[in-house]
UniProtKB/TrEMBL annotation:
The lineage of its organism: Bacteria, Bacillati, Bacillota, Clostridia, Eubacteriales. It comes from Clostridium botulinum (strain Eklund 17B / Type B). GO terms for cellular component: toxin-antitoxin complex. This is DUF86 domain-containing protein. Keywords: Hydrolase, Nuclease, Toxin-antitoxin system. GO terms for molecular function: hydrolase activity; RNA nuclease activity. The keyword Secreted does not apply.
């Protein structure tokens, strides 16, 4: 069975991190641009939030599974 929540969160993390890599472009001078800084920070925050959501979903599933035993 495919767990769409896990797939969705994983894709969200991937998109956010790809955007960080795109904007940063391996060039530290990109951090001088406040708009790029904001974009990088926002996407790091999105990735972190999606990671927390993913972890909470997995933990909740394990707790529910364990309580059914």
């Amino acid at each position: 069975m495919v767990n769409y929540i896990i797939l969705n969160r994983s894709e969200k993390i991937d998109r956010a991190l790809n955007r960080v890599y795109e904007v940063y472009d391996n060039d530290p001078s990109n951090l001088d641009d406040y708009t790029k800084q904001d974009s990088i920070i926002l996407n790091i925050q999105r990735a972190c939030e999606a990671t927390i959501d993913l972890a909470m979903h997995i933990v909740a599933g394990k707790v529910m599974f364990k309580s059914e035993e």
